[in-house]
Amino acid sequence: MMTNLFSTFDPSTNIFNISMNWISTFIGLLLIPSMFWLTSSRINIMWNKMNLTLHNEFKTLLGPKSFNGTTLIFISIFIMMLFNNFMGLFPYIFTSTSHLTLTFTIALPMWLSFMLFGWINHTNHMFAHLVPQGTPPVLMSFMVLIETISNIIRPGTLAVRLAANMIAGHLLLTLLGNTGPTMSTNLISMLIISQMMLLILESAVAMIQAYVFSILSTLYSSEVY
């Protein structure tokens, strides 16, 4: 049963022995017509307002020492994760963000770039982060160990948090869907209502997890200045 349940996350679409599932990573951009970015529609205005709000928030977190255009990196990550999370809610579309292959591939190089930039250009500042202000001298060596471990596991927690939340929601939807054939006619309406409510919840989770991934990446970046 568990094998069939988790098989919904297996890449299975092959053309000429090439896995086509990962193309769903870019399906959001492919579905948007090119004129969308040029025309002034209500959706476009709302989209620009969202980007401006994210820019202002990320700029506040990064501080005045950040480089110009840095917020565009994290806005792009947010948009990419948002599209992938939402596309995975549609039937027969592969959810790439439910795999550590994608989430860890994004989180690890980004974290490595932050660490290399910080230790090369702001070495004293990075050493100061290992010992929080006000730490008793007796606990300083212990705090250095704790802060080092917490820094090392950051890319893993970023990747696992997003993938685990996407998997959990899809498993609930799959479990409810599998119970449909065994339910009586009177309970089918309750199943449909519960599926719709869960789908609304998963839509909220898709937005929240994209925001959490981008905001935590911004916070990690702000620590190297």
Gist of the model:
The chain is mainly α. 68% of the residues lie in helices and 2% in strands. The chain has one domain.
Cα-atom Rg, whole angstroms?
Answer: 21 Å
- Give the structural class: mainly alpha
Q: Which sheet architecture does the biggest sheet show?
A: 2 strands, antiparallel
Please estimate the helix content: 55-70%
Q: Helix count? A: 9
List low-confidence stretches: none
- How do the strands line up in the largest sheet? 1-2
What percent of residues are in strands? Answer: under 5%
Number of folding domains?
Answer: 1
Cα distance spanning the termini: 50 Å
- Average predicted local confidence, pLDDT: 81
Q: Give the helices and strands as they follow along the chain.
A: HEEHHHHHHHH
What is the tally of beta strands?
2
- Cα shape: globular
Record the SSE blueprint.
Layout: H1 2-6, E1 14-15, E2 18-19, H2 27-31, H3 42-62, H4 70-87, H5 100-121, H6 123-129, H7 140-152, H8 154-178, H9 185-222
Antiparallel strand pairs: 1-2
Helix pairs in contact: 3-4, 4-9, 5-6, 5-8, 8-9
